[in-house]
Automatic annotation (TrEMBL):
The species this protein was found in: Thiothrix eikelboomii
InterPro entries linked: UreH-like_TM_dom
Sequence ranges assigned to domain Urease accessory protein UreH-like transmembrane in this UniProt record: 13-221
Key words of the record: Membrane, Transmembrane, Transmembrane helix
Descriptive protein name: Urease accessory protein UreH-like transmembrane domain-containing protein
Top-rank taxon, per record: Bacteria
Amino acid sequence: MDLAWLEHSQYFAALAVGFFGGVHCLGMCGGLISALSFTQQAKMPKVKTHRLPILLAYNLGRVTSYALAGALAGALGASFLSLTGLQTAQHILAFFAALFMLALGLYLAGIWQDVAQLERFGSGFWRKLEPLSRRFIPIRTPWQAFPFGMIWGWLPCGLVYTILIWSLSAGSAWQGLLLMLAFGIGTLPNLLLIGVAANRLTQFSRQPAVRLGAGLMVCAFGLMMLWRLTLNF
């Protein structure tokens, strides 16, 4: 059973899922990043401000946390693979990842909302972690924004958790890291643009046609994963 297709296509797929799933990111983080964009003007109205370095540092911190989480998931999956038959176990993990990808697509499309239940698993951890981020508020420099973004990278999110489940089947800590890194990079265009055109993008993202299109695109990746897995059995 040849799994080479996973190694060559999974990173591009994760990148695309991050981009098209950015509709969900707009709802989760849009208000926060908009606040980051204008916090300096509110706190220091007489000082010339530069919003882009703040936004870049925040998102770099967020993506760094995604990559670390992917490495942990990949290492966990690799440990599981080492205890059983490599190819069979990797196919099983990839199969469940594909199912979660389909569920995520339906969630983004507004068709099936139960994926949001995944966010409950991290709610307890987040309640303990979130207060640490308040130490960096108000954010006036990129050096404050980066650790703030790292903390908020652990915000419970069904979209992130689904890609983490996918990372379990990556095969190693390094591959899991790259998978989540690709996903995080894919989310950047949407979240960086929020700081520039928050209101317009938020209104755009709430349109049913946009949500449906993004969800169906993610579903297509899930179906592709299932189809290619069946070819290798």
